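Tutorial handout. Part one gives the primary structure; part two gives the three-dimensional structure as tokens.
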Amino acid sequence: MTDRSTLSSFPVTHKWPALHPERLQLYSLPTPNGVKVSIMLEETGLPYEVHLVSFETQDQMSPEFLSLSPNNKIPAILDPNGPGGQPLGLFESGAILIYLAEKTGLFLPQDAAGRYQTIQWLMFQMGGIGPMFGQLGFFSKFAGKDYEDKRPLGRYVAEARRLLGVLDRRLDGRDWIMGSDYTIADIATFPWVRNLVVFYEAGELVGIDDFAQVKRVLAAFVARPAVVKGLAIPPRA
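Part two.
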């Protein structure tokens, strides 16, 4: 069995050496999934060191990165102070958010019912908003926009509107997804809503003005100082 008692025993640290091995290591890119974790780290105040995983140089396909994130997706983390004081590596942004929330006791309710209700909305983002908004971006802004058959675009526009409607109804009368408390459900969801409007430039396409509650909470989200910082981490080379 491979020893994993020190950071240097993880191959990912050979490609991205840790200058501060006592800190949590973040391997990421400022995409909607990547910034979930940088925002969470900024919100919690946990000390961390960030490493840019460049898609331009196919860093995500390197053996070192795959040793930590076998699905070749960002973000991933390596926590030198994991459970039992042992280093812990994790991939998948939703799993990382739950881990960091439990590690710090922040942004996830302590009572069982509230915890699971928050996780269900986190899963709503992971299984719905993220994949569907991403497909809409492909068919509206990237290579898919040149397809003669516009049925795929129509499908994802309709599904994006449906999901925005679900979110809008949930936010009616609430400050955040879970009510008055800001949680990992918000940290997961609103980078994708922002990306839909700002990066994909699909606000008019999906009729974002029809979703007043989503727009209200998105504005509150992007005004948070930790969000402002986290959205730019790691800086692109």
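Part three, for discussion. The first helix runs from residue 12 to 15. The mean pLDDT is 96.
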